[in-house]
Amino acid sequence: MKLLTMTTALALAGTTALAAEKTLDIGVSDALTGGAAVYGLPQANAVQMAAEEINAAGGIEVGDDTYMLNVIAYDDKANPTEASNAVRKLLDRDGVKFILGFCCSGATGAVASFIEYEDAVMLVGNAAERSITTREIPNLVRTRPPADYTGAAAGTFVANKGHKRVAVLGALDVGFYASYVDAFEKELNAAGGEIITREAFGLKDRDMTPQLTKIREQDPDAILVVGYVEPAAFIYRQAVELGIDVPRYGFTSGSEEQFLRVATSEQMEGVWDLRPTELTLLSATENGIAYHANYSEKFGIAPSPSSPYAYDQTYALKDAIEAAGTVEDTEAVAAALRELPVPDEVVMQYLPVDGKMFDENGQAYTSNGAFQWQDGNWVFVQDLPSDAAAYSAFLSTID
């Protein structure tokens, strides 16, 4: 079902200039409903907002032509079949050549399996499964770094806190969460620590007391939680309710508002989120502060920390189209993306490789950060080790 079509040139409707302008349709495939909508809907909103900003600033200049962006968005429900169907509609029915969004790895991987053979460019956002950018797909780029890039940094951070016995509770049947934990464990082991148990939950689970009771009996000195925002929030709340008084670390990328739908601020106090350095208002750059304010005004809710991955996609696409000088030759646009410096408008704090936003794998990198819940807010505490060039070289060796 087609959920929404966002004509982002409406602000210019009625002007005489519009008659001489052309329209470029761009597509969004993302989780707009269901549990993953906490990531997907903010991404779709971010693309809409960026497109409106680009249109208001004069559009995309290609030779003598000016293009206004029209966004067509479909709900992939974070489901591989739904995502494949959504992208096929964008390609075959709507004639879209540039497709953005993609918050979740399973759905994204399904589309990545065939997009190489299409006359299109795919820009991936929050989906963190490493294999998405190890397939050598020339017309695919991703703005978020892979989960294991961050997991290794998180393992070092937790080890440096002196923790030796860490219990893991996570959505471990999801590939990118499992790879985060594997990389975390490798660095924890290197520092003399260990994961004493790996307890799993389903993404729709909300009662985690059986797993937490088992963890409590094993007397860990820290807990690592990996999963979507809502189940993670239940874990943090229920850990307090069960009297588990040990440091809690996580990998979630949820906003304050999303966590507070389930847990109180007091129950969240002291929780760490070890993730790429994403949008958090108290540590944002000027671009991030402006993005937060504009998004909040437009949509009536604060943006999720990971939503700028899609916003940044839109500006990267604009610059690549203008550099390639075409909206028809998708190979030229894909090649321009691989040569692109980091656009001035982006929100995330990217670490260029050889001066470029995307490496030879089509992968972008941000710094990694340790965020802690303090008095009702996520507060950026410190950088985590982030060697984008070294990880890029590693990624290039993986088939």
TrEMBL record:
Gene3D superfamilies from the xrefs? 3.40.50.2300
The lineage's top-level taxon is: Bacteria
Q: Which Pfam families match?
A: Peripla_BP_6
Q: Which stretches are transmembrane? A: none
Q: Which GO terms describe its biological process?
A: amino acid transport
Cite the SUPFAM superfamilies for this sequence: Periplasmic binding protein-like I (SSF53822)
As given in the record, the signal peptide range reads: 1-19
Its keywords, alphabetically, are:
Amino-acid transport, Signal, Transport
- What CDD domains does this protein's entry cite? PBP1_ABC_ligand_binding-like (cd06336)
Q: Where is the Leucine-binding protein domain?
A: 24-376
The family note in this entry says: Belongs to the leucine-binding protein family.
> Any idea what this protein is called?
ABC transporter substrate-binding protein
Q: Lineage, please?
A: Bacteria, Pseudomonadati, Pseudomonadota, Alphaproteobacteria, Rhodobacterales
